Amino acid sequence: PEAGPRFGAAEIPPGSRGATRSLRRRDPPGLAVDGAGTVYAVTEDLVVNVRSRAGGWAQDTGARDALNDIGMLPTLDPGDIARVGAAANAGGDLVIGSVNIRQIGPSEIALFARRVVSRRAGGAWSVGLLASEVADRPAVGIDGGGAITVAWAANEPSTGVFRTEGQAGGELGPKIRMVDLSSTRVGAQRQVDVAVAENGAATIATVY
What predicted TM-score, i.e. pTM, was given to this entire model? Predict the structure, then answer.
């Protein structure tokens, strides 16, 4: 409608602080919006670019710093891709899921530890680490109480979508296999997405 809201264009500033190479352009940033209209755009080096409705872009490096403190910061060396998913709730709690990938041979890919970095609104960043089983393409969601749902798509022919749960600013729970998607295509890449409502209702969708 004529009087309705409008989309505005804004360029995310470069966020490659301390990275050893320029960011790849093959994956878009993780994107989230909270209840106040604040936009969070998380680049592959896990810099959180923040833009309020009234202001310009600012950068939050707390997620990077939290991972760096435990030696889990993506190096962004050639061949590594830190794929990123991001979500926020109405209150401004934020969660980021990511995974590193390295090509180790002509047809071999090693996927390193999957990580979740989260914070309650105004709080410190906390890191959750999961076992480095083969998985890819993190999708994250967070409800009004700060409960996190994270799903990864498996990259093996006999497995499916994995889910883990946790609390923003706290620890993640154990990994749970949610869906078994057997495939005859070895190494089939599966896409996964998750939507979480403020009341905690969650839906996971996948395709391969």
Answer: 0.82
